Amino acid sequence: METKHDQILKYIADLEIGSKISVRQTAKVLQVSEGTAYRAIKDAENQGLVSTVERVGTIRIERKTRESIEKLTFDTVVNIVDGQVLGGKSGLSRTLNHFVIGAMEINAMKRYIGANDLMIVGNRESVHEYALKEGAAVLITGGFNTSERVKLLADQTHLPVITTSYDTFTVAAKINRAIYDQLIKKEIVHVSDIMIPFSETQFVFGYDSPKRWHELNHSTAHSRFPVVDQQMKVIGIVAMKDIIRDQDVHTIEEVMTSMPLVVNPTTSVAAAAHRMIWEGIDGLPVVDEQQHLLGMITRRDVLKALQMIQQQPQMGETIEDIVSSQLKDYSDDNNYVFQFNVTPQMSDYLGSVSHGVMTSMITTVCRRVLNHLRRSDLVVDNLSFYFFKPVQLEQTVTVQLKILEMTRRNGKMDIELFVDGQLCGKALLNAQFIDRY
């Protein structure tokens, strides 16, 4: 049987593009409560069916499609190469397929060039024209211009022609770097990827009686719910301790915790996990910039996501990956000893190992040891690091660890770093454990 929520979504999907949508009107047409209508409209927004525009309201739009994050638009390319658009500005929003270096004869290009490709070439107007006719945009290197005929063709085909002062090699390197960075970003899991959507989120209004909390607690077994006002803005959190503390109140607003901790959809799961563990809470409301409730994340979902991330193959190599791949483990039953060689990627502009890389090395080593001993996930609470002498390129660093304290919740470690038998750094690290589900 079709639910009211599904009926509203179908009603919204059938509206003409550009139609205005209001909670009150939708509730009236479909004879549902305004709360039910609001939930469905928010869900439609998450699905890309509607969009809320400031001073205009909520309107029906073409369904948005999530493009692959590793893809770049031609507009992004303009910014990457500090370019200037000579023609075809209407096509800047198109997505780049792949790029081709125009260092060959036109006849040889036919097998390499296709629709929405980017032809990177110098002062060769015949190639500019040929690429546009084949459906590819053009990036002219060396600061050269092109003919008016080519610019007119770019406008007609809605394919941008861009010029940049950089040479071809630099342009290709910059675009490759941008795509590579996007691949790394793609691996980062955000709150929006795991949150319980608004349509499934349980909440209470500030004017509700404590009886409402008991009803939700009984039906969901949860004890912590966001409190919202009539505009669906989060104004507090109510938990079991709040209800038990004062049982003579008439509204939840009287006992709730005001100004609660919240997260945004773009917050990383790692940051949300640290906040929840640090504060000792099991759930956080997800809000937009105006504090409207969008959903919830729970401690269980966050931990599952963290475990999933660790199991996924990585598509881009970060500094953390480089550091981890360099570590060699020489530990035995009584001592924890690691070594790594300082490579050029680890150095700063002076040729010494950078402090950031050294810190990353320490946290990586400690995480390995603590994960082995405790077999649980963890977050680093505090790291104090003292640098005694610089470490140069191609030197071998020996890392020795001592466990100062291990409890059910915390682990404390003392770390010493040696180069050629001399102490070059010392650190103290404290981490909190989080149980796996």
UniProtKB/TrEMBL annotation:
Name of this chain's protein: Predicted transcriptional regulator containing CBS domains
Domain CBS, first and last residues per copy: 256-314
Domain of life: Bacteria
Keywords, ordered alphabetically: CBS domain
Matches recorded under PROSITE patterns: CBS
Stored SMART domains: CBS
SUPFAM superfamilies per record: CBS-domain pair (SSF54631), HprK N-terminal domain-like (SSF75138), Thioesterase/thiol ester dehydrase-isomerase (SSF54637)
Species in which this protein is naturally found: Sporolactobacillus nakayamae
